[in-house]
Amino acid sequence: MLRLQNISKVYEGAAEEVIALESVDAEVAQGEFISIIGPSGCGKSTLLDIISGVQLPTGGTLSYQGEDIAGKVGVAAYMPQSDVLFPWRTIINNVILPLELSGIPKKEAMERAGELLEKFGLAGFKDSYPFMLSGGMRQRANFLRTYLTGKKLLLLDEPFGRLDAITRMELQEWLLHICSAEKLTVLLITHDVDEAIFMSDRIYALSKRPGKVVANRQVMADRPRDRQFFLTREFLHLKEELLMHLK
Ligand SMILES: Nc1ncnc2c1ncn2[C@@H]1O[C@H](COP(=O)(O)OP(=O)(O)OP(=O)(O)O)[C@@H](O)[C@H]1O
Hints:
It comes from Metabacillus lacus. By secondary structure, this protein is of the alpha/beta class. The protein has helices spanning 44-52, 91-95, 97-101, 106-114, 135-147, 165-181, 193-199, 233-246, and strands at residues 2-12, 17-28, 33-37, 59-64, 67-68, 77-79, 153-157, 185-189, 202-206, 213-218. Strand 4 and strand 5 form a beta hairpin. Helix 7 packs across helix 8 (233-246).
């Protein structure tokens, strides 16, 4: 579905250039859940920016279903690290934004989004403002807005980074359920090796900057996975190996 070949990115700064990515090769098949892990500053967000089209690579090729997509915005839906709900809009008015922008009449957009609120754990909060919701609910609303773009490829940049451990666990399981039910293809950035192994079909580990792929590992465990998976030999071996790469 998505292929990155020899991707590099150099930022020409005022003082000195920064080589963010070097010779990154990666492939994503339809329906795969892939995590990208790597030390802080190794170029993970840059990679998602390049796939989403908001940054151009300085070298290499990038294709989606065989078509060159370098610099092309709108192929994938991108959920950034920060909470990007507009504080002055109610939850329903926040989540319908991609529908409104694509020209769908507001009434129809409201109906379509309204039907999904329960599935996204937001029933009863349609007319609330973002500050009235918990962190986990705000992330679900951010995710619903991303989902309503209708894109089948989702780029998620540390979606659980700011949540407490319990909410994080709940959202991981919830997200896996939605992604498999809706047959979504996901590229997830995370700092958390446990999270990457628990959620993914495959994991790319990047080296410290300039980011290069140092591991591409399949997670063989069946789905749905439960938390007992954390106690298995396979999980512990993979975790040890990935942590070694990150060091
Ligand atoms: N617009 C920019 N101009 C210049 N340098 C940049 C720009 N964006 C990112 N960088 C640099 O590129 C490198 C990679 O940044 P990036 O944000 O992609 O890393 P990251 O792995 O996502 O980091 P983190 O895990 O801390 O979020 C960093 O050294 C960063 O300072």
